[in-house]
């Protein structure tokens, strides 16, 4: 049950399990959740066939530019921090000496000299998860309570490989890990179904700089036309809290309505969305939008197989995977008999090239009035709302 003034509450919904719903009427732009991660780890692989990527602080994951003075970790020459404060905070939490040594040890581990970047990142997650088990057993139990069972993760062969690598570089947690292949498999499933990607700065190829586990936010279900969306400001401001995520209301929502985010850009085609949801999250979507698009002819949707993708909440896809303007807006922007949800794309989708983000109003003012400025949750672009007032969708 929600406490007085709490904007959201958890509720069991038939066919979906636990979900988050509005505990009271919500105004467009309202922040319904701000949450810090219980676990955060780098998404940058040790060995990459791709071009070099930006450097980040190993604690707050802000961009470190080439002119910036950095602080190196005393236990390693390969882990840098943007300030002594970040180094101290990391050493007291996520980056104790044994974790630092384990991460360095991965680069010298013969079995880890692989080109599969996803496996490299999964090993980083497991080290972070077992570190959490040692420093905060209560938060580790929260991690274990999240959705995801051993059967939801990778193949048994991959689990055994990842487990052996972690044990080989983390001898001091071998007793904790033991022969617990099932625990390793369960942890990998928690990560697969619940991790949020903190994206690299907008402007080029969209990829992930770090992954975080946010227990409350993980209960937001998916809808292909969401009524809330997620914002993060990793490079903004100073001090702690920059890796928090904020969930903001896109448009007015009545009391008792389920609150849903989209797990990927909203302009993906029906077949792409269904394939991704089934493979990555284990379900087929039956939202109102999917029911409409399921009846479209094949030439209106994706032909052939979708290319393998990098993981990331807002990563951009090939043009063939995206809806074109006519499919999103109809023959004239603002309406379509074939796609009655076209209004959503007109008002709540960023029109900046190669963005694909979702727009939500800035938070309401102190007197409760909704803002008439829309913010994109991907590129950060601000634009005036040319349709004053908001209505529930």
TrEMBL record:
Annotated SMART domains: SET
Domain of life: Eukaryota
Occurrences of domain SET (ranges): 6-264
Region (Disordered), start-end ranges: 298-319
Pfam families assigned to the protein according to its UniProt record, in alphabetical order: SET
InterPro entries linked: ASHR2-like, SET_dom, SET_dom_sf
Protein name: SET domain-containing protein
Organism of origin: Kalanchoe fedtschenkoi (Lavender scallops)
